[in-house]
């Protein structure tokens, strides 16, 4: 009976110990604690890896946004003034967004540049994926100019776990920024 209880315990999610662990979330991916209550990871390993890749990319953008959003609110007026441009902040001093409005102040050229950079990043990621084949790691876009990514398996797993945890926190922070500005009509700063 103790072996049966131990096996049953192993099959429970670390994140939600009262729910069974999704079968694809076996702990082999960095940051995997068995949390997928809506089965968004899909039904097979390829879908799960695809969703992980999307999570990593969105998380990296969120980490940039978590820092950039308050910095923009603090320094946009000064930087715009130095270049003789109009401030892009809303009338309340908040960053422009879908919920706050103000996106009409952003030049279309900016969106073209952003879309181009995103396209180049996607192409780089695709090339790295094709080049590395089975050795490809989700989220690897071939960019590590400082050589910070470890070469040993244990170090790689630790670094990827840190990145995914920081990404998840950043995504929640940006959600909080958006909610705060939409509900209270005041900037994050």
Write structural notes for this entry:
With 189 residues, this protein is mainly alpha-helical. Helix content is 55%, strand content 0%. The longest helix has 38 residues, at 45-82. The chain is globular, with a radius of gyration of 21 Å. The termini are far apart. Mean pLDDT is 89; it is low at 1-6.
Overall mean pLDDT stands at 89
**Which range does the strand content fall in?**
under 5%
Tell me the series of helices and strands, N- to C-terminal: HHHH
- Distance, first to last CA: 57 Å
Structural class: mainly alpha
Q: Which sheet architecture does the biggest sheet show? A: none
Q: What are its keywords?
A:
mainly alpha; 189 residues; 4 helices; disordered N terminus
């Amino acid at each position: 009976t103790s072996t049966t209880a131990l096996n049953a315990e192993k099959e429970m999610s670390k994140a939600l110990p009262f729910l069974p662990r999704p079968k694809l979330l076996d702990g082999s991916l960095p940051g995997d604690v068995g949390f997928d209550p809506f089965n968004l990871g899909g039904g097979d390993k390829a879908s799960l890896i695809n969703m992980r890749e999307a999570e990593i990319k969105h998380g990296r953008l969120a980490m940039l946004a978590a820092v950039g959003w308050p910095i923009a609110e603090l320094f946009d007026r000064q930087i715009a003034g130095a270049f003789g441009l109009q401030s892009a902040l809303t009338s309340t001093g908040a960053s422009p967004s879908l919920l706050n409005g103000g996106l009409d102040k952003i030049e279309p050229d900016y969106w073209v540049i952003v879309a181009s950079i995103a396209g180049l990043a996607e192409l780089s990621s695709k090339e790295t994926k094709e080049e590395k084949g089975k050795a490809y790691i989700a989220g690897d876009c071939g960019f590590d100019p400082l050589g910070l990514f470890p070469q040993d398996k244990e170090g790689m797993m630790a670094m990827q776990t840190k990145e995914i945890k920081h990404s998840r926190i950043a995504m929640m922070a940006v959600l909080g920024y958006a909610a705060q500005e939409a509900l209270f009509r005041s900037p994050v700063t």
